[in-house]
Amino acid sequence: MKEIILIKNGEIALKGQNRSSFEAILIKNAKRRLKSLGNFRFSKAQSTIYAEPLEEDIDLDEAVRRLGKVFGIVGLSRACVVEKDYEDIREKSAPYLREVLEGARTFKVEAKRSDKSFPMKSPEICRELGGHLLEQFPHLRVDVVRPDVVVYVEIRDFAAYLHAGQLAGAGGLPVGSSGRGALLISGGIDSPVAGYMMAKRGIELTAIHFVSPPYTSERALLKVEQLLEKVSEYSGRIRFVVVPFTHIQEEIRDKCPEELFTVIMRRYMMKLAQRIAEDNGCGALITGESVAQVASQTMQAIACTDAVCHMPVFRPVIGMDKTEIVEIARKIDTFETSILPYEDCCTVFTPRHPRTRPTLELLEKAEQALDEQALLEEAMASLEYKSIFGEYVSGAPLE
Ligand code: ATP
Ligand code: MG
Predict the structure, then answer these.
(1) Percentage of the chain surpassing pLDDT 90?
(2) What is the mean pLDDT of residues 258-275?
(3) Which domain covers residue 335, as residue numbers?
(4) Stretch 68-94: mean pLDDT
(5) Which of 50, 170, 181, 270 has its CA 20 to 30 A from that of 353?
(6) 173 domain-assigned
(7) Mean of the pLDDT values across residues 49-70?
(8) Is the CB of 346 under 6 A from ligand 1?
């Protein structure tokens, strides 16, 4: 039996004239995601996108799993393609739906007939097919209110489809439809979640990670790459930039008051991140900060960090509790990697008593001890570009 995946897009349906360009981005993303599984033909009609496998042995379970992580899709169904002929629908229904119906106690049939030339009306299709399935599976009962399984028959323009319901998609907007953002990613729990959340709003990610060898190890960097691999299952390709930060941190440690160390370091991170963001066509920075989670995330500290930024800084987890962030980290499967105990550059040289209410005046005075221009240029001159693409287009060059 020939199968197909029916894809329903959500919010993009609301976008008026932009709709077709949103759909085109969604299809491009979905195609990339399925590429390594085999050939698919994509088409769209009547607010549904069709992904039709063009080879016999394509793993459709895996295809559905991958598409379930593509933003912009609200629901997907794996369906059997049948002729627009009631006899064919009836004949294929029992064999195709056997497994789900054998595992159910109650069911109902729903029919959608967008091709009005089909000779049977929807209630008639439901009645006839319901009767047939009851004969085939005598243990079943019909329950129109809360059935275990709903059997859908969709009569459309070019074919009819038979399936047992829709799986929830990842929601959000197609990645790329909202531009690009630079995610400051540590090896912690919060920043991968922040990246996931902004990708969900259609932002393509460039990731920036600061390293301080020999204080931070190769394993710590590897951990960040693993996190990006996970995030990229949702966000698609991610360009990854590694920034050497040792010299800047040592200078701050040696020349600035200990209690201001963290905020000064964060201001330097933002300054560098902005330059990298601009070089990579990003219009915003993204961080995993949450108000008052640590000393550098008080309102005053955030104000001092923002004072060096001319780009918007998106902090999607700013108002979330740790438990709420952890819940998402578990859902996207970054949590177990995030809690591996490798050092981050933020945890080297941490002051014993960080100042929770820094002022700009204090900071600017302390920073005069540093040769800002030279430090920034030095770091910018030794950036390392790596690419992480997730499972499906590994190795392909970035456009
Ligand atoms: P996370 O769980 O994301 O590490 P956190 O609660 O540990 O966050 P901090 O360590 O204060 O908080 O970092 C705040 C934010 O700064 C992070 O969410 C991340 O966006 C950014 N950040 C911290 N360390 C790095 C790093 N080494 N490279 C890039 N960005 C970083
Ligand atoms: Mg951290």
Answers:
(1) 79
(2) 95
(3) 180-388
(4) 96
(5) 270
(6) no
(7) 95
(8) yes
Contacts of 19 (CB under 8 A, 6+ apart): 12, 13
Confidence of residue 352 (pLDDT cuts 50, 70, 90): confident
Q: Quickly list DSSP for 111-174.
A: EEES-TTSSS-HHHHHHHHHHHHHHH-TT-EE-SSS-SEEEEEEE-SS-EEEES--EE---SB-
Among 17-21, 283-287, 300-304, 327-331, the minimum mean pLDDT is found in 17-21
User: Do 183 and 208 touch, CB atoms closer than 8 A?
Assistant: yes
Mean pLDDT, all residues of the chain: 91
Helix, strand or coil, per DSSP, at residue 204: strand
Residue minimizing CA distance to atom 20 of ligand 1: 287
The rounded percent of the chain whose pLDDT value lies above 70 is 95
Together in a domain, 247 and 378? yes
* Total of domains in the chain: 2
Q: d(Cα 191, Cα 178) in Å, to the nearest integer?
A: 19
Are the C-beta atoms of residues 104 and 148 closer than 8 Å to each other? yes
Q: 169 in ligand 1 pocket by Cβ < 6 Å?
A: no
Find the radius of gyration of the CA atoms of the chain. Answer: 26
CA distance 318 to 293: 9
pLDDT of residue 68: 96
Strands of the sheet containing 238-244, edge to edge, are: 313-314, 285-286, 180-184, 204-211, 238-244, 384-388
Largest CA distance in the chain: 85
